Amino acid sequence: MSICGLRLVPILLVCSCGLTVTSERPSYDELDVQEQSAVDTILGELTRFNAQVQHRTKYNIDAVADREQIHVSFEGLIFSANLGDDVVHVAVWENLGSEKQALVQRWFKAKTPAQARATYGKLFYQFLAVVQGVKQFMFQVLSSAWVYHHRSLFNQERDSIRTALAHYVVEGRQKEMWGFLKGACAPVIAQYGPAWRDRFSKDYLQHHFTEVFDPEDPTGYMYFVCRWITMGTEEAEGLNAELQWLVDLPRL
Amino acid sequence: MRHAIPCALVLLTAAPAWADEPGVGLEGVDEPHTITGDVTPAPVPRTPRARLELGFGYASLLEDPDVAEGYGGGLFFSYEMWGRLGAELTVFLSRNLYEDQLGTIGTSFLAGNITLGPTIRLTPAGRRVLVTADLALGTYLIVPIVQENIWTLGISGGLTLAYRFASWFGVSIKLRYHLFNLANFAGPELRDLKALMKVGVIDRMEIPLCMTFFF
Predict the structure, then answer these.
(1) Residue of chain A nearest B158, judged by CA positions
(2) Chain B: closest CA distance from residue A111 (Å)
(3) Any idea what DSSP says for residue A124?
(4) Cα(B83)–Cα(B87) distance, rounded to whole angstroms?
(5) Are A79 and B106 a contacting pair at CB < 8 A?
(6) Cβ A210–B6 below 8 Å, yes or no?
(7) Per the domain annotation, does B43 fall within a domain?
(8) Range of the domain at B125
(9) Which of A39, A179, B143, B187 is the most exposed place for a label (fewest CB within 10 A)?
(10) Is the Cβ of A81 closer than 8 Å to some Cβ of chain B?
């Protein structure tokens, strides 16, 4: 019996090889042309925001203003996030697949896939990329642990979006970006307001995070983003004030 | 810490040999013999048919450099139905912290299982030391942070070494190896937190130490 038992050992060890719950991200050089182009656009936005941060504070977001820390190579998900591990994730249009591209087209009531792609690209590769950069600033200043323990997800997103809006003002691109966002969000709020209006709250997001952010169908998140953008355009202060607000959070 | 795994494997898989050593029969005040004369053979001490174990201990995803070794706990109920053959129901939950960059988030990989399968007792009846081997099939829960909960199919196999201090109570140590995420029952396909790619089969080894109740 002991011999039979000992025979289990190599079997167990062999079986365990290569079974992991994490994978390595491909490097920039391993990406395809569309992915590299998306990374270049995102990096450009993050670099400009990093310059503003460095100009106005003693901090920086160098950790993600790096093409190897911009992750776009995943497929089949609509996703834009900075989880606090010094990586910005942004889904590339070409990797969404036809079903999710059609969903995006419905969000924006785009007449053609090309129109939907243009809207998606500007929203995800530019505006939401800066939003992830603001989150990086938040994580850098306050630490990931502090942010996760003391800040609601609702407030993290709300403040990041408001700060990103303020960034485009000091960049001299307010008209361009704010106008674009207003146009992109109008059909989202009109279509999904009846279903999501009453759910737009800190409490709902806290308890239904995976439903709202579901990367298979983040329609709820898109509605939340548009509501935060609406709030942000009404409440935004200058970039200095927004950045200082984040720095001062532990003392408030 | 990783060096401890092969050692534990060797120790536990070699256990059946020790269990067959003579002179470890379960005798004593809690199960007295009923010898009344020279001609009456001593009855074989009763081996309890049911066993409930409450365990807590080491749990590891063996090969993942981004996931630390962790811990888990659970409940095991086994019942011998036909001689040495029985069945065991297991409910177990494990937690492993992420390491390196992912570790800064402060989140963890949570997985649990509800499994049922056959067991076989490898030691003779009436011993204080019991060794059983088991196989199981069941549903495995994975709790990702950016996806809905996922229920998948999984299998496990392992050994249990138990020692009875009394007829009703003892301790045991289990060595279990699991393969799960073999197929989806419910929820989305699991994506990894680092590269957001689809995750294939996952393995886990656990070595819980248990309080064991026999009845």
Answers:
(1) A8
(2) 30
(3) I
(4) 12
(5) no
(6) no
(7) no
(8) 4-21+48-214
(9) A179
(10) yes
User: Does residue B121 lie in a domain region?
Assistant: yes
Count of structural domains, chain B: 1
The shortest C-alpha distance from B177 to chain A (Å) reads 7
How far is the C-alpha of B97 from the C-alpha of A10, rounded, in Å? 27
Complex ipTM over 0.90: no
By CB atoms closer than 10 A (0-12, 13-18, 19+), residue B119 is buried
Handedness of CA B180, B184, B186, B192 (dihedral sign): positive
A232-244 tens-digit pLDDT: 999 878 999 999 9
Residues A239/A216, Cβ–Cβ less than 8 Å: no
Are A13 and B6 an interchain contact pair (Cβ–Cβ within 8 Å)? yes
B35 domain-assigned: no
Mutate to test the interface with A, among B60, B96, B146 (most CBs of A within 10 A): B146
Pairing of strands A70-71, A80-81: unpaired
Q: What distances in angstroms separate CA B4 from CA A24, A93, B207, B215, one per listed residue?
A: 27, 47, 11, 33
Return d(Cα A43, Cα B76) in angstroms, integer. Answer: 52
Which residues in chain A have Cβ-Cβ distances shorter than 8 Å to B196? 71, 74, 77, 79, 89, 215
| A104, amino acid identity | V
- The residues, ordered by sequence, that sit 6+ positions from A45 with a Cβ below 8 Å of its Cβ are A125, A126, A129, A130, A133
Q: What is the pTM for the complete model shown?
A: 0.79
Say which CATH number the domain at B64 has.
2.40.160.20
Provide, as residue numbers in chain A, all residues whose Cβ is less than 8 Å from the Cβ of B67.
20-22
CB contact under 8 A, A24 and B14: no
- Among B182, B126, B178, CA closest to B152: B182
- Residue-wise pLDDT for B25-66, tens only, equals 444 444 444 445 555 655 545 678 899 999 999 999 877 888
Residue A18, pLDDT score: 59
Name the band, by pLDDT with cuts 50, 70 and 90, for residue B2.
very low
Amino acid code (one letter) for B185: F
Give the pair of three-digit tokens for residue B113.
Answer: 């299982």
Q: Which two tokens stand for residue A143?
A: 């630490």
